[in-house]
Automatic annotation (TrEMBL):
Gene3D superfamilies for this protein: 3.40.190.290, Winged helix-like DNA-binding domain superfamily/Winged helix DNA-binding domain
Source superkingdom: Bacteria
Protein name, per record: LysR family transcriptional regulator
Family stated for the protein in its record: Belongs to the LysR transcriptional regulatory family.
HTH lysR-type domain mapped to chain residues: 1-58
Length: 284
């Protein structure tokens, strides 16, 4: 008795056709007939009977069918568990990430993951939103640490909502910064596609700032602001541990950070283990 016999019997119950089951399971018609005769001999019961429309299970086979189906479910779970064990003892994970997340979140996450699964290699690719979305779509990364911005067909797990701040060189400014006041000052902007959250916030507010300079790197933007060349808007995580004046926007603006992935089907056991650890560390 083996699992292939159970699979064949369960499929014949669905198709009611020896020809169809043979095609679906990779048998020849004679191979199915031979397998059924062998099962009937081993089990000492009749399993199939002919009808005008093909075949159907005998009453004895129908009596056994729930046990066959239960065994197939348990076997599937066994295979999943075995794959999970193998997936957590070898292999690699490739992650896409904003540089700010790579700096402030990933060290804690990867340290704990490496302690639990030291045989799995981790590769981190830093990029902006558009780059990471492209990597996910092309399968270059397994998943990405990004914000929930724009329209996407990918799955998203929200981790943390964080505030966007106005960053100004004037140390005399007090309280929240009116977002429309940005139109009255030089503005240091991120390149298109680098910070979609800030671009969306400005668009929703109907604000068109006077852009003095475009930069891709957050550090370059901050350096420009510190030098008094203009002001900017940056998310909270980027400004963590940075000595610079920051003010909540009026009205307040936020972005949601988390993990984006193509679908549940493409996530390996190792991917899921790392995501679980990330949830435990970041979500509070």
């Amino acid at each position: 008795m083996d699992i292939k016999q159970f699979l064949l019997l369960e499929d014949l119950n669905k198709t009611k056709s020896i020809t169809s089951s043979a095609q679906r399971l990779g048998y020849t018609q004679s191979g199915v007939s031979h397998a059924i005769k062998k099962m009937e001999k081993e089990w000492n019961i009749k399993l199939l009977k002919r009808t005008n429309h093909g075949v159907e299970l005998t009453s004895e086979a129908k009596y056994l069918l729930p046990y066959v189906q239960s065994t197939l479910v348990q076997f599937s779970r066994f295979k999943e568990a075995l794959d999970a064990i193998n997936g957590l003892t070898k292999g690699s994970i490739t992650i896409g990430s904003y540089s700010s997340i790579a700096m402030h979140w990933l060290p804690m996450i990867l340290q704990q993951f490496n302690q639990m699964y030291p045989q799995i290699q981790i590769h981190v690719r830093e990029g902006d939103y558009d780059e990471i979305m492209q990597w996910i779509g092309q399968g270059i990364v397994d998943f990405g640490f990004v914000s929930q911005s724009g329209q996407s067909n990918f799955a998203f797990i929200p981790f943390q909502k964080e505030m966007l701040y106005a960053v100004v060189p004037d140390t005399q400014w007090q309280g929240p910064f009116p977002i429309h006041a940005l139109e009255q000052h030089p503005y240091i902007a991120s390149e298109i596609g680098v910070d979609n959250d800030v671009a969306a916030t400005l668009h929703q507010a109907g604000v068109k700032p006077h852009v003095a300079c475009y930069c891709k790197e957050d550090a370059s933007i901050l350096a420009m602001v510190k030098q008094g060349l203009g002001m900017t808007i940056l998310p909270e995580l980027i400004l963590k541990d940075v000595d610079i004046q920051k003010h909540p926007l009026d009205p307040p603006a936020y972005r949601t950070l988390g993990i984006m992935y193509k679908s549940e089907d493409v996530l390996s056991a190792a991917d899921k283990a790392l995501i679980t650890i990330a949830k435990q560390i970041i979500i509070k």
